[in-house]
């Protein structure tokens, strides 16, 4: 072989591979360039099967593909949409749901009561491991589908479920079914607004109780838009208008849900006009957002709530006075202004302003910034000399935790450090194991617009997100009484009494209420976002 | 080939009647962080066609530097030619632009290096390295150049040249490698061949073969050969004339037989006396006292004076001794050459 | 050649006539090298900043007030304030220590591991080489992120600032490149004549390895290590970005840079200053490494 | 040669199992609560926990889990990720764009590093040499978490030379900016090694010979010196190719490229063992094949090396 050849061969091979690489990429279709369709940025949905899609992105995409039973009006009261009527019996225990006639799935199947029953049974059945399964827990028979693990995380496996369908669901006729709850609940209609309660067509099931292979990637709904092609994972989900939709008809012809991995990246595309709506603009971009977007940069309220939980099981934080003192050491307004640039609102209550029954500034003095009083109270009650706030780094909490710590340091003269954990699950696990991780950064977004959806999961003894171990039997009692009250008004009374206990006890420090911070391109108008962080797909329109 | 030689004659000032190669008062110094090392301090000699001139001296006396200066491959920096002339057929090579200088190399003046293994590029076949000359200088096609390479290997008597042309340097034995070097040097029919210690790295029998080959090829082509060596045995056999260098100067220049019979410089004398001889077997060998001087610090006057048994006051004073013409075609730079010759 | 006088004139090896030791030579060389002095002074200043930060600033790096957010330079804070309203100059000075500790220690660790693996693999060859090279391959196959998350997560105690965890993590994850370079240099050097000569003279394997092979294999190795020093100081920032870096109220250039990067469009100064210090440090160490290598490498003289 | 390749392939199999074992062990060690990671910040219900634990053998010991995985792997079944997607399908989605990105980055890096490295080596100690040293150091000192967003900010958002983001169907032009960013992470080392190697080779005797042959300096450098100097650089480039494929995590995230790095990062974040091990397995195979290719190329570049 002549001396020079191998090297030339190598160079040639490299050049060829580059050429091949060059041929690999095609241009993305430019169909949306001047048509009546828009691009909305989302994250990769975890799932698109309604009972498994509990993340923001998944339920946002579902809102285009499905038509819900109820939606909420400006007063956060549920209003029938796909349902003709939803009526309880006297005891608020058996609810009768009548569907509007004439609706079909995208594959032409008519929407019937059975479609709801099948979908809900599938979602509630424990072995199907649907992340939204817990929404069905109020329905009679849920316990039989989800036997409890007798020894929690121990070696014993939970017994097999006794049933595979919810005994509380009963079909009356093709357009009517009843839901029997295991306990009376006057506000059940509000719960039905969540995306897990969407129906599934017969085509979804390969046999009863089994979802067909590949259905999720080509999901079929009953909504104003249908899937165009397949769900292209990590890339996009394209939907187009259903031609003869019976319900409210959107003004746009289609949506490309473009999947982003990072908010800052998405913002770069929003500014460059590659995406029409960004639903959450990252705080790092906020100070330039007005300049970049002008009036196309908007905020509106949503249900998010930031707070810090105390490890009330630790002696250092056992006294409510110490907890109040720390709360008073924090200047909420300054953090809202400087860190969040006004995109979050100081919180001085324990439930979000978006739910009925919210009372402004219920927390009173304990949530007012008063460093002098805070220090007196703190010193008098022997607060610890070291405070640690643990947070998960994957959620972008470092900036405000550090700022909060700096304020506590300055106000109380104690040392305060922010302690990062890589993931929320680690933080949660350490909290549950009562490891000494100090104060815990927490947050909550409601599933349905009721006070109870904050008070129950966050503060009651067995609350699913009570990670900090506070327990008060009077409080638990009041929550239960509220849920079983005959009217929503009566329920709110009880729940407000419960909130009063929180004010005295301060098991957590309310910090901020979140807002939708969104922006849109020059191509669209009438962009509105609701409490569930979703874009209103019926109002949005393109500018011709 | 002749037509190419003809275009080469376009060298400005080329005069076929002028001496083949003439070096005049060449000065080379190395400017390093440790100071200026004066490697060559006024070397002068000439070379005629068909003649073999041996340049003799210890390591560091400036032989190789002189050779590299003639070739124009002195590493610069740190090497600088500060004065002197190198005339090839009347053309001062030092004044030529680099592009023309490059055409002189290998075409008119070629060089053989001491260690053929490191002097050949390890990652190319010898065929490639030979053919490269024809391709670059003659613009030959790949296959023509290769055929010429095979011819050359044949000429230097490498067995199985046609297959060995595709071998890499490390696949040859030491002697064969040196033959490849010779082939490379002769490829473009140069008129001057500089061989820098061509046989030092080889064992004795191979040395003789290589020297024989060189002599044979020189005769065939009527080349001028400059043989750089510190081996007086080699010199005696093949050289016509000898230039002895010490500390960057030619201290004695003479036809080979004269020098062996009657050295005219104490250094030459000392070199000869340090050779063990059969007829003097049993006597103590005369070794030269001391070490050659540091080139950064050459003694005043005659550079050899600290080691010289003839040295007297004038030897320690500047200027250095001039080249005394002690016989026709014979010079020595020693104030006391008569005493030296007389002994 | 009738009289066969083939014995040659005695060769004198040392042209210059000096006869100092290698270290002496190197020092003589370094003393005259401007680059050496510049980088050495820089390194000394950096080390002073790392271990006696109070020499440079009297400000408290932990005293931050949001009201100063992104303010420009003023009286005490000559570099201005960062996003949290902290004094950028004070934080940059105090950040030196963690950055330098992480950088130097992790590079030393990677260097040591690389040296042991590379030298043994290259020197012994055969099965040893195969086994060690396979181990290196396996290590290279582990994604940096996974290794970082796992090692840092497991190594860090909950109380300390995480310097040791970060150091060990970076050391364990970065030695492979040093090992590979060392191995190939050793293989190249091993076949050189002087090693064969040493072996024939009966030098022990240890002597061969450390007196003959190692010094002659160091050039590329040192280059890789000096670069590693720079990347490791910077990698600390990446680990912090992933949430497995330094913890608590630790101050480091990496943390500063990672944090300021988000606001580069609004205020560049909190990003620029620690970056300048980081670049200057890396530059100083690389120049110092180059100068020392050049001084000790006889081939370059 | 043939025997050498066979032996290397056998060693590759061992390495492959070693690497998957190590990664599996690391994932196992890192597993806190994958189910919670899947659910997010709300509490996972008991029945969900039980069902997922059963489905993914999460309550089994490490060796049992590894055995299940290997069994699947050997029958060509890479399994499903914890989110229920087929891992083989995810691999098919993610690999092409990452391979194109990494190749482009390596080519950019090698082209720049070799040309600049050679010139810096020739003009050792000169302005060009020191200038490139300074430039590479500045790049070196910039963590990729800073460099990638800054590049996007400056070149995409402000100057608009490149698109700010791309997709998995990106054209080479769209991949150019991320590839350049990625290349900067390896350019410094490649350049320095090239430079050192060139400096050493320029002193070699064969360079003197080449000059004595009357060759132009350009030919001496690019034909004689370069090929000798490339030998250590090629090894480095081979390693870098592997590093770039797994190391593109930040770059892929910033430029929205749903490739291997992104999937790996997500898998690690969500403690998705099967996903991570699946991706790493392929990564290791590619890495080993590239290494073998590099070693063979090594022999082609340096005839003194013979494999048997």
Essential attributes:
heterotetramer; B: 343 residues; alpha/beta; 4-stranded antiparallel beta sheet; 22% strand; C: 301 residues; mainly alpha; globular; disordered N terminus
Write the layout of secondary structure elements.
The complex is a heterotetramer of chains A (544), B (343), C (301) and D (308).
Chain A: H1 5-24, E1 37-42, H2 56-65, E2 70-72, E3 78-80, E4 83-88, E5 94-99, H3 113-124, H4 142-145, E6 169-173, E7 176-180, H5 188-191, E8 205-207, E9 210-211, E10 225-227, E11 236-241, E12 254-259, H6 263-271, E13 277-278, H7 283-293, E14 297-309, H8 320-328, H9 332-338, E15 345-346, H10 371-380, E16 386-392, H11 398-412, E17 415-421, H12 424-432, E18 439-444, H13 452-459, H14 473-484, H15 488-505, E19 508-520, E20 524-525, E21 541-542
Parallel strand pairs in A: 1-12, 1-13, 16-17, 16-18
Antiparallel strand pairs in A: 2-3, 4-5, 5-7, 6-7, 8-9, 10-11, 11-12, 13-19, 14-18, 14-19, 15-19, 20-21
Helix pairs in contact in A: 8-10, 13-14, 14-15
Chain C: H1 22-31, H2 34-51, H3 88-124, H4 126-141, H5 144-155, H6 163-190, H7 193-200, H8 205-242, H9 253-261, H10 269-296
Helix pairs in contact in C: 1-10, 2-3, 2-10, 3-4, 3-6, 3-8, 3-10, 4-6, 5-6, 6-8, 7-8, 8-9, 8-10, 9-10
Chain D: H1 2-30, H2 34-39, H3 46-55, H4 62-74, H5 87-122, H6 127-141, H7 144-158, H8 172-202, H9 205-212, H10 217-247, H11 249-254, H12 260-269, H13 273-301
Provide the structure class of chain C: mainly alpha
Which structural class is indicated by helix and strand composition of chain D?
Answer: mainly alpha
State mean pLDDT of chain D (0 to 100 scale): 82
General shape of chain C:
globular
Largest interface comes to:
A-D, 69 and 68 residues
How many domains of chain D? 2
What ranges of chain D have pLDDT less than 50 throughout 5 or more consecutive residues? Answer: none
- The helix fraction of chain C, in percent, is 55-70%
Computed Rg of chain C: 24 Å
Tally the helices of chain C: what do you get? 10
Major pleated sheet of chain C: none
Biggest pleated-sheet summary of chain D: none
What is the arithmetic mean of pLDDT of chain C? 78
> Which blocks of ≥5 consecutive residues of chain C have pLDDT under 50?
1-19
CATH architecture of the largest domain in chain D: Orthogonal Bundle
- Estimate what percentage of residues of chain C fall within beta strands: under 5%
Taken from the alpha-carbon principal axes, the silhouette of chain D is globular
Helix content of chain D: over 70%
What is the succession of H and E elements of chain C?
HHHHHHHHHH
How much of the sequence lies in strands of chain D comes to under 5%
**The CATH fourth-level homologous superfamily of the largest domain in chain D:** MetI-like
